[in-house]
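go over both lines:
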Amino acid sequence: MKTAPAHKIRQAALTLVLALAALTATVSPASAHTSSDLGSIAAASGGCGWSSGGYSVLDSRAVRLFGSGGYNSTQVGTVYLLWSGTYGENCVVTLKGSSSHGTSTQTEAILYVQTSGGETAYWDKDEYAHYAAVSRYTSGRCVAFYGNVRTRDGEWGHGGRDAWGNCG
């Protein structure tokens, strides 16, 4: 029986190791984003788009499942209201929780801006694996915010603040 030369075996082994390393480096865990990652989400063009300057977390609310009996204790995410004085903008980030994080399901971030005639709603709504985010110039205006997450099982979680606040 003829055997392969040692250098061919080493070359094949090295190719296999490099391929596995590349695959491992590109797969991110389902828990890739946490509240400590809000800074990277705020700066990302797919997030708030605030590439410079700081931000403040003004409010956060649990996103909980809602059924025929109302809200229950199952939290499927968190919705945050952020402020950037540099941009004069508010940003709403709906961050999916561990039960649905990493799975692309309907995820929504909604920012309501009070106007003289009522309100204007801005939203980011799509099939996302990690978060949805929307930002708008709101300096001098009152805002409300909401976030929705659809679970892998098709249930909806909702959370936010209906009352106007953070005016200015």
